[in-house]
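Issue 218. Parser rejects a valid record. Input:
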Amino acid sequence: MRDETAEQPAPLRSGLTTGSCATATSLAAARLLLTGQASDAVQITLPKGKVVQMRLEFCRLLDDGAEAGTLKDAGDDPDVTHGALLYSRVRLQAQPGVRFVAGSGVGTVTRPGLVLAVGEPAINPVPRKMMTEHLQRLAEEAAYAGGFEVTVNVRDGENLALKTMNPRLGILGGLSILGTSGIVRPFSCAAYIASIHQGIDVARTNGYLHIAACTGNASEDTMRQYYNLPEIALIEMGDFVGAVLKHLRKVPVDKLSICGGFGKISKLAAGHMDLHSRHSSIDLPQLAGWAAAIGADAELQAAIIQANTSQQALALAHAAGVALGDAVCAHARAFAQTIVPPQVQVEVFAIDRQGGIVGQAGVQ
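Output the parser choked on:
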């Protein structure tokens, strides 16, 4: 008899952050300068104490310093930086401490509202701390009393950054050097959620107290045209509406416009805060119940329950003169309003695949 036991999927592989890469490469370059020792791998300690070894692509002297590089390994996470060459150039300086410089492919902060000041290289606090601690430890071991200038670079980082939220956040010229744990967890979406929070913070700090949280390009275009909102006030939330709503508890705005496809808005209406199909599904009987509450007869309710998609359910309701789009938006708005502080005015728009508005609620 053939064995029908399903194969167990292999566990997803974790990777290392750009912050870990910058730490490893800056340490290797500095060690070469202070000790003359070049290596093809380097050990670093992550923030929670785990020791990892990272392979180097090169470690060499320059006329005015040294440089080392490694290939970013994001594990099984779909990270735009996976496979990118990250390299650090280190120069010795008389003044103790570490000075960070944005090299080729690393961005510079140009707008207030982020954890870094305007004009600073986009090297986040934890990677800075990691590099500083490793370099200070090396200096003590080598009896070196001076400091270090560290220039972090990412090959093709300027183009890779166009696939991230950096341009909208006002981080220009390249990528950010990120990480809080040093490890990339596959599909954790932590970086994406962090960019949503940063987008809200930047909008508020720059005086934009009406923001539009959008699930994708079509909904962004709709909000841009409807309100003439600037890019800085458009928050690309994807499926993570919960990240928006929960963050507004800490940093409220005056007005929040939520815009997405009818199917995703129907999930929000049902109380889901992750709108991805992996985590939530469209409840057609619930749609039928909402339609019944606004006048749908038994025949229409049955047709909605049997519909293949939410779009078909919406079309059936529309043909019968039942404003299901508005009803779903009203339920979505009511749920969202329970999450954010009462002073935040919430409105919800549902759109079709062409970006046309098929439902709205709370619009004043």
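Fixed in the parser; the record now loads. Residues 69 and 87 are 4 Å apart (CA to CA).
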